[in-house]
Design goal:
The chain has four helices and no strands. It is mainly alpha-helical and 123 residues long. It comes from Carboxylicivirga linearis.
């Protein structure tokens, strides 16, 4: 089956993969007591972003793809909240908080922009 969008070529998918790697590195330094708590939640939310982009790219219509982009965007919002919570719980310092907020915000904007673009395309 030929896809309209090859997810491996999408910059949002590539950047979200890098974010997953960064989140795994970050959470590896969290307290062991958080392995089934915030660590697990942050890892799942981050993995959800590129996973939904990839899954959506295989859908037949851009409207269907858009729904998966919405889920990826929502996962980015979830991750953003979890980064704030990590700071609140003093697992990360303010400079790390800001670094991750910039990365997540950039990705959110890219997902939103791409979603708008594909919904305006006609095939």
């Amino acid at each position: 089956m030929k896809r309209k969008h090859n997810f491996k070529e999408l910059q949002i998918w590539q950047k979200s993969r890098m974010l997953v790697k960064d989140i795994y590195k970050l959470t590896s330094e969290f307290p062991q007591s958080e392995i089934y708590g915030l660590t697990s939640q942050m890892r799942r939310a981050s993995v959800s972003i590129p996973s939904n982009i990839a899954e959506g790219s295989g859908r037949k219509t851009n409207k269907e793809f858009s729904r998966f982009l919405e889920i990826a965007y929502s996962s980015a919002l979830e991750l953003e909240t979890q980064v704030y919570l990590s700071f609140d719980l003093e697992f990360i310092i303010e400079s790390v908080l800001e670094e991750f907020l910039v990365k997540i915000d950039e990705l959110q904007k890219m997902i939103s922009s791409f979603d708008t673009k594909i919904l305006s395309e006609t095939f």
